[in-house]
Write a structure and sequence with these properties.
- This protein is an alpha/beta fold and about 280 residues long.
- About 40% of the residues lie in helices and about 15% in strands.
- Helix 1 packs across helix 2, helix 2 runs antiparallel to helix 8 and helix 3 runs parallel beside helix 4.
- The structure holds S-adenosylmethionine.
């Protein structure tokens, strides 16, 4: 498929001393944009939480279903913050299957994720509809203005804003809550916020202990992780109107539209996904 899948490709200023969430997630999803340190870390996580790969897959499937929902509601422009290394079901690919006019700006703060996204878009994207930026979701004003400055997003028309599996890498509640509130304010009416987040709220004790071990493990990475309650995750949507079925375990979010087997694997035990997700409309 070209250079972007070459595991030997190393962008400048990459931190290879410590494992990183973007590259570990890529490993869990079966990608090649990861290094030995990330793979060892991923295997350690799998040893603690044997469902780790299924959890990642299930989150990714939620992202796809949520994007399709937005496109069906008329959304034609997406801002995907914490977009990750390109993998199966990238937002622009999912969206343009339903509407070939859709535009997408990807944002991530990890150099490998950004470099691989650039290479994917160089080879297979359309510069008039797709862009990727290296940026931090906490730098709200700059991230938003750079995304708009690409010329791909019209800030006066509804946007699909995605923050999927990224806010658990912002452990400070106030920092995370304030940043998301500012994005909610910036979005024009008719926009959708799509969000998923790791949680152990109400999961069986054995699973909770497994997750605690993984949270401890992530403290040794460049991207410590935190878990939030159902209430904490729901609060990110502010006064937006949550679409049915609200904030749920990701396999439960409109599972009938699923394309892969992961939600079916967790159909009898959705909380095993340990990721809550929801989609909400700004009236
Ligand atoms: C688990 S991956 C999720 C990728 C994709 N959104 C998905 O759900 O399939 C989390 C991504 O968030 C990125 N990330 C973490 N903290 C971030 C921040 N403060 N600003 C931007 N991106 C961040 C990581 O680099 C990583 O690529």
């Amino acid at each position: 498929m070209g250079e972007w899948t070459d595991p030997k490709f190393v962008p400048k200023d990459i931190d290879l001393e410590r494992p990183n969430a973007a590259r570990v997630y890529d490993y869990l999803l079966g990608g090649t944009a990861n290094w030995a340190i990330d793979r060892q870390f991923g295997e350690l996580a799998i040893a603690k939480v044997p469902m780790a790969r299924t959890m990642a897959r299930t989150n990714r499937d939620f992202l796809g279903r949520a994007v399709r929902h937005c496109v069906r509601q008329g959304i034609t422009q997406f801002l995907d913050i914490g977009s990750g290394v390109p993998t199966v079901g990238n937002v622009h690919e999912v969206a343009e299957k339903l509407d070939p006019r859709t535009r997408c700006v990807y944002v991530d703060n990890e150099p490998v994720a950004v470099a691989h996204s650039e290479m994917l878009l160089d080879s297979y994207g359309d510069p008039e509809r797709h862009a990727v930026l290296r940026g931090d979701l906490l730098d709200v004003r700059r991230t938003w203005s750079r995304a708009v400055d690409t010329g791909l997003l019209d800030p006066d028309r509804p946007v699909g804003l995605l923050m999927v599996a990224v806010l658990h890498f912002v452990p400070d509640d106030e920092q995370a809550g304030n940043a998301v509130a500012r994005y909610r304010d910036l979005l024009p009416s008719g926009s959708y916020l799509v969000l998923s987040h790791a949680s152990d709220d109400g999961v069986p004790a054995e699973q909770q202990s497994q997750l605690e071990l993984v949270v401890e493990q992530y403290k040794r990475s460049s991207t410590p992780v935190c878990l939030r309650t159902h209430r904490g995750c729901t609060s990110f949507f502010g006064d937006f109107d949550l679409v049915d079925p609200g904030v749920t375990w990701v396999p439960e979010w409109r599972p009938d539209e699923a394309e892969s087997q992961a939600p079916a694997l967790l159909a009898d035990n959705p909380s095993a996904a340990c990721v809550l997700g929801g989609v909400a409309l700004k009236e």
